[in-house]
Write a structure and sequence with these properties.
The protein is mainly alpha-helical. Helices cover 79% and strands 0% of the residues. The protein is globular, with a radius of gyration of 21 Å.
Length: 262
């Protein structure tokens, strides 16, 4: 259970790191701001055209009498927009990391550089890194969707569905969010998705302590924009912990003794 606190500590350490390196904080904001503008434009377009799309998809309701046609299509329009908003929240981090791959990779390298030791580089061309990132993000989203279907079904169980299932949902989301964020540093180290997942499962409490608080915060994309640089920095620091010998003694801050500091 101690790892839960250590994981949350990396959330705070990452935010403190970008606070001490203001130039990198501003540098890391750019991808999130670009993605936020794109998502806002997409949602505005959906809101503007949702009525027409619903009417086009339900021609059988053209002859329905009032008020049933309006109620039916109004409900579908609201459902369509809610689904679009849900997709935006679920995919925002993955798309931001994909858009900001060069930015976040440079930020992650700087974290490794300031913390001392090796600064791993993938050595791959940018297009190859983007392809790997997009492929792995899609694989993660498929896993999240499968868990989501199971949890949705369990949600209909009385009591359990209203208590345990939401908690499990945040844990699943937190685990895979941590995977997305640590992928920036681990991909530079040549660690494939299967190995990354195994590493995170091996320190499950540490991973949840890092990912779950960020999941709660990232429910608001605007907040996610400002937390993203620190989240990537914190994920890089967490990766350094995952790579450290597990029997190394730790100090009160959760760092292995002898680990260089900035």
């Amino acid at each position: 259970m101690r790892d839960l606190g250590v994981g949350f500590g990396y959330v705070m350490k990452g935010q403190r790191w970008v606070g001490r390196h203001g130039r990198w904080f501003g540098f890391g904001l750019l991808p999130g701001l670009v993605t936020l503008v794109l998502y806002a434009a997409a949602l505005a377009g959906l809101a503007y055209g949702a009525d027409d799309l619903t009417a086009w998809a339900t021609p059988f309701a053209d002859d329905w009498s009032s008020p049933w046609q309006g109620v039916f299509r109004g409900f579908l329009t609201a459902l369509l927009f809610a689904f679009g908003l849900f997709l935006a929240v679920v995919t925002f981090t993955a798309v931001t990391l994909l858009v900001g791959q060069p930015f976040y990779e440079s930020l992650s390298e700087e974290v490794d550089r300031t913390e001392g030791g090796d600064v791993p580089e993938s050595g791959l061309p940018l297009w190859r890194e983007l392809w790997i990132s997009a492929r792995d993000s899609l694989r993660v989203l498929v896993r999240v969707a499968l868990y989501g279907v199971v949890l949705f079904a369990l949600g209909f169980i009385p009591v359990v569905g209203q208590t345990l299932v939401p908690v499990l949902g945040f844990c699943v989301s937190g685990f895979f969010l941590a995977e997305e964020l640590t992928a920036v540093a681990l991909q530079r180290r040549g660690v494939e998705l299967k190995e990354r997942l195994a590493m995170l499962r091996g320190r499950r409490m540490l991973t949840l302590g890092f990912g779950v608080p960020l999941t709660v915060a990232f429910l608001v994309p605007f907040v996610a924009v400002f937390l993203m640089p620190g989240a990537v920095a914190g994920a890089t620091l967490l990766v350094r912990d995952l790579e450290a010998p597990q029997d190394a003694p730790a100090d009160v801050d959760g760092d292995a003794i002898g680990t260089p500091r900035a």
